[in-house]
Design brief:
This protein is mostly helical. It is about 75% helix and about 0% strand. It starts with a helix and ends in a 5-residue tail after the last helix.
């Protein structure tokens, strides 16, 4: 059984990565010349 903090941390990192991807796609839509 994994450590609870480890599970929470993994979920937290996963959420941050998802939000980061969303923000990046938004930025790409706003400034396509940056790509």
């Amino acid at each position: 059984m994994p450590h609870p903090l480890f599970v929470v941390g993994k979920r937290f990192i996963h959420r941050i990565e998802r939000t980061d991807l969303k923000l990046r796609s938004k930025l790409k839509r706003l400034c396509p010349q940056n790509d």
